[in-house]
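Usage

Read records sequentially. Each one opens with the input sequence:
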Amino acid sequence: MDLQQLEKLNELREKGILSEQEYTEQKQKILSQPTISLQQFFLQTNHYTMLMHLAQLCAFILPILGWVVPLVMWLSRNEDATIDRHGKVVFNWILSFVLYFFIALLLTVILIGFPILLALVICSIAFSVLGAIKAKEGIIQNYPLSIRFFRIDEVEET
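and closes with the structure output:
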């Protein structure tokens, strides 16, 4: 059921554009439209890949979850070519992040590592959110600064 459609329909009736009979017929059509269940929502590829990108943010709950959750999501449905490509994009960034993190950790000895660590956290959040937005639109796009550990076909470069 789409609340916006019902509101617009009611507005048209109040303005006199629709008769009471037309209003009733259109309202019935809107109310009889099938609704999507939560399970169906998650089974749609664009929604699933969007969640796979956002799953990296689980690292703020428990660091290991930031790579375990996307890994489980990727491996559980990697027979789908689109999900497989998104999984590779996500793990290219996760592996790049880990590499950059340890380099920055070493550089904390000379203090330059602290701002690099902060920049890495900001980039990780931004890239995850932007990747999720692109995934929702059906676009597969590599994250900036991501090292290509896994080869991905048909990916937009940034």
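Summary fields computed downstream for this record:
- The chain has a mean pLDDT of 86.
- The radius of gyration is 22 Å.
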